[in-house]
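Morning run. Coffee first, then this:
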Amino acid sequence: MPSRKHLAAAAVFLLATSLVAGTKPAPKNATVVDEGTFGIFQNGLRTATEQFTIQQYATHSTTSVTLTAEGKERFEQSCELTMLPDGTFSHYEWKETAPEKSTSSVELGDQVLILHSSNEDGKAIKDQQFFLTPATFILDDYFFSTREVLLWRYLASSCRPASGGMNTCNLARQRVPILVPRQRLSAQVFIEFKGYEDMPLNGHPEHLRHFVIETDGPEWHLWMNEEQKVLRISIPSANTEILRQ
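And here it is:
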């Protein structure tokens, strides 16, 4: 694929967070890189809401997410993904508080990633080790802002600074090893840049970059604006749309 130049820094999260539009200070010397809400719609009906905050510290970054279901039955999950400045994995925590209570975490071991889990009674489930490197991305079920972080890492690895304050990007198809803690499995996905598209979102025309994440299951379509923020995610096979509010 030919190289492309972007006015905004592609590696905003991992290499140059100061260039992200709308960043603001956060406690403990952190910078809020992105925060907001995604509405999750299935078959045209809103089924859940995701609230997220992505913060950059001097030594690491955190993506904190809470997912709640719409309707009468309470459903709530949360997670926090910690990554190092070079985009490699540091730590992951997941918790479900309703309708059941359970937890899991992933930590670095000696040439492995170790998954710890407990069930609704608080009883520990046998640890599981995966022969994966820190370059593995944690792509757990149901959380969508982490897909944005995955795209940032893809851009950071594909773009290099060029003259005139611009970046030269070779957005080739890329393989990424992943771990899905909820399913207790490792896999791989492929990320591909599909080009630019114009579409209306929230009543405004948008000029967006279209990316596809290919998995062993459904195909994910993501649209990102020039501020490096994902505005829309589509999973056609599941009749699911995720829209930034």
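The chain has one helix and 19 strands. Good start to the day.
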